[in-house]
Write a structure and sequence with these properties.
Blueprint (H helix, E strand, L loop, with lengths): L9 H27 L2 H4 L5 H9 L3 H17 L8 H7 L6 H6 L1
Helix pairs in contact: 1-4, 3-4, 4-5
């Protein structure tokens, strides 16, 4: 079995991983702002789904999942911006109950 060359230290890998998680949450928040402020209409699209599919090249389903994640991150508040997409989506069912969401 051949050895794999490690190109970064564990601490570098952890730092960069945490940065990506934070950046992802920031992007979800921006995506939610685009949705809530109706960017799709401003750009001439008939629906959010058409806008998301065309502009971002991803499925409508992915777009709506990211919106769910963004709503969860928004409800959790700024101290919890490093939540994963899957965790945020799972927590989105508690969007109307921020206290229970933070506890979960």
């Amino acid at each position: 079995m051949s050895e794999v060359e490690v190109l970064m230290s564990e601490s570098e890998a952890r730092r960069l991983t945490e940065e990506v998680k934070t950046d992802a949450a920031a992007l979800w928040t921006k995506l939610l702002a685009l949705y809530e402020r109706k960017a799709h209409i401003a750009l001439g699209y008939s629906s959010w789904a058409d806008y998301y599919e065309t502009e971002f090249g991803k499925s409508r389903r992915t777009g709506y999942r990211l919106l769910e994640a963004a709503r969860a991150v928004e409800a959790l508040g700024p101290s919890d911006t490093r939540v994963t997409q899957n965790a945020a989506r799972e927590l989105s069912s508690l969007n109307d109950e921020p206290k229970r969401m933070r506890e979960a």
